[in-house]
Amino acid sequence: MSNKSKRYTGQTIDVIFHSERCVHAARCVKGLPEVFDVKKRPWVNADGEEADKIAKVIEQCPSGALEYIRKDRSEREEPNDRTTVEVDSNGIILSKRKLGH
Ligand code: SF4
Fold it and tell me: What is the tens place of the pLDDT at every residue in 45-88?
């Protein structure tokens, strides 16, 4: 884990945030404000909602800045594909998922 990565520990799920990857798309804070709140410290409350809901929102993060480790199951997030991020000429962030490695 890099210096810019931080782990937020919960009872049933741990959330890992890689700040250097974040493109500030805000899907996390809009999707689950009880868990992801930039006005609070720490900004991630891994016990703020059910693990399934947290995992679902994390899977929508377009940059891969968020990861999770389930502790209630022996399951770790394993992405099937890679995410790349591009900025178009209007400054709009586009994310693409490529199949394969
Ligand atoms: S959804 Fe991902 S990219 Fe968007 S603000 Fe949250 S961590 Fe950053």
Answer: 999 999 999 999 999 999 999 999 999 986 556 555 656 666 77
pTM for the model? 0.76
Q: 69 vs 8, 76, 78, CA distance in Å?
A: 10, 5, 10
Q: How far is the CA of 57 from the centre of ligand 1 (A)?
A: 10
Exposure of 72 in the CB half-sphere (CA atoms within 13 A): 11
Which neighbouring-strand residues pair with 17? 6, 66
Architecture of domain 6-98: 2-Layer Sandwich (3.30)
Ligand 1 atom at shortest distance from the alpha carbon of 23: 3
DSSP state, 4? Answer: T
Tell me how many degrees the CA angle 84-62-81 measures, rounded to the nearest 5.
Answer: 55
What distance in angstroms lies between residue 58's CA and the mean position of ligand 1's atoms?
Answer: 8
